[in-house]
Write a structure and sequence with these properties.
Length: 440
């Protein structure tokens, strides 16, 4: 089982990554000193000077090594934000600026078409652009999610003229037997996939749903075949992400050794009591998630957004309290078991809104939610020293003119930006909606 994510736990967040490499540099290059800032330590904001050289934080140098001093004049400083689940991440400046203006420097796109990224992955991961991890198309069964979304929905406004056949091997890949696993993974790696997204949708009913037109778009991979798929993903040195709907799906994924849950059951605005009951995490599933050391992205803002946009007679509204009670219980169970959480939105809004929604649900304090929001990057990029301010960490931060902990996190709008030692600016007000809103 791949374990590339060791050392990036929830408690680490902004206070992680103590390094000595910055101290070993001996200040051979000029140092920029940032004074007067209040820096988030994972619990609160404390006055602290920061020192930057060659794109990294360094220990306090001799005064003669300081080439420039910048007074942050009481601004509140945090690591940058992340969105660990967003499908609108074009390799163009407009999209990059959209995210970065909100303070989002790091994004995971777990399922997209290949075209916009072909030959352009080097656009990302630079000081002046956002950093994006891309999966390319997801692995599913014929007729499984996200086939219906692409064929019946997105062809109406995003991909006019495209056929189902044109999406196969691009937006989604079919696997129905062990013999099909290797060719699909070979295709994905050749397309530039950095992670692999898979789909389990109420897989306890796989025999009923598979090939049944009544469940078109609402099924996924065979749970009996699933462990072999995950094993093959790991054999290629890639991380396995999974879309799940039910407790059963989450347990199948955990027992197979999946690295990352892209949703947490009960994320949708359900109008079905049986469906909601199936989304309640059992103790056995929580234990399996812990044993697998999985990362969980709840995306519970999705249901909150759908409820907010629903008409008064929408039957889903009758299930709102029950849905949020299930969400709250799921979150609290996982939190009590010290499971690692990441912030992701699936385009429902900015990640600040997802973090604040966890506070509203009563599962996290605002300081804990801010720690998730600023610590997710360390989970996305376990090989990098991000989400931290210690010597050797990448010199990236956001600065705010008001205390982010004193108001809902949705009000947290950066006024200064630093990425890998480069000061950035984005004219105009940060967007309030999600990237999906602009796409629509």
């Amino acid at each position: 089982m791949i374990r590339r994510l060791l050392g990036a736990a929830l408690a680490a967040g902004a206070a992680a990554c103590a390094k000595t490499s910055g101290e070993a540099a001996a200040y051979e290059n000029p140092v920029t000193e940032y004074i007067g800032g209040r820096v988030f330590d994972g619990e609160r904001f404390v006055e602290r000077a920061l020192y930057v050289s060659e794109g990294s934080f360094v220990a306090e140098p001799p005064r003669e090594a300081v080439a420039e001093t910048i007074d942050l004049a009481g601004l509140y400083v945090t690591p940058p934000f992340s969105d660990a689940h967003n499908h609108v991440t074009a390799p163009i400046k407009m999209a990059s600026d959209y995210f970065m203006k909100q303070g989002v420097f790091y994004v995971v796109n777990p399922t997209t078409i290949v075209g916009p990224f072909k030959g352009k992955l080097d656009f990302f991961d630079r000081p002046e652009t956002y950093d994006v991890v891309v999966s390319m198309g997801g692995i599913t069964a014929p007729g499984g999610h996200p086939e219906k979304l692409y064929v019946d929905v997105l062809t109406k406004f995003a991909y006019p003229g495209r056929t189902r056949e044109s999406f196969i091997g691009d937006a989604f890949h079919y696997v129905t037997s062990e013999a099909e696993i290797a060719p699909v993974l070979d295709r994905l790696t050749s397309q530039g996939a950095e992670i692999v997204k898979t789909y389990l949708l109420s897989s306890e009913e796989f025999e009923t749903r598979n090939g049944n037109p009544d469940y078109y778009g609402n099924t996924g991979l065979d749970p009996a075949l699933y462990p072999k798929i995950v094993s093959a993903i790991h054999d290629r040195g890639l991380r396995a992400f999974v879309h799940v709907e039910s407790d059963y799906d989450a347990r199948v994924a955990a027992e197979a050794g999946v690295d990352w849950l892209a949703h947490l059951p009960a994320y949708g605005a359900s109008s079905d009591e049986a469906e909601l009951a199936a989304a309640s995490l059992s103790d056995a599933t929580v234990e399996a998630i812990v044993a697998a050391d999985m990362i969980v992205t709840p995306t519970y803002l999705l249901s909150a957004t759908r409820y907010a946009r629903s008409d008064a007679d929408d039957p889903r509204l009758q299930m709102r309290d029950a849905t949020e009670a299930t969400q709250r219980a799921n979150l609290k169970k996982l939190k009590a078991a010290n499971v690692r959480f990441a912030i992701g939105t699936d385009g429902a809004g900015p990640p600040q809104a997802e973090a604040e929604n966890l506070v509203r649900l009563g599962a996290f304090t605002r300081a804990e939610a801010l720690r998730l929001l600023t610590g997710t990057a360390a989970l996305i990029y376990p090989e990098r020293d991000v989400s931290c301010f210690d010597p050797g960490c990448e010199a990236s931060f956001l600065a705010f003119d008001a205390d982010p902990l004193a108001a809902p996190l949705t009000a947290a709008t950066p006024v200064r930006y630093l990425k890998q030692g480069v000061a950035l600016s984005f004219p105009g007000k940060a967007a309030e909606g999600g990237a999906a809103d602009d796409a629509e």
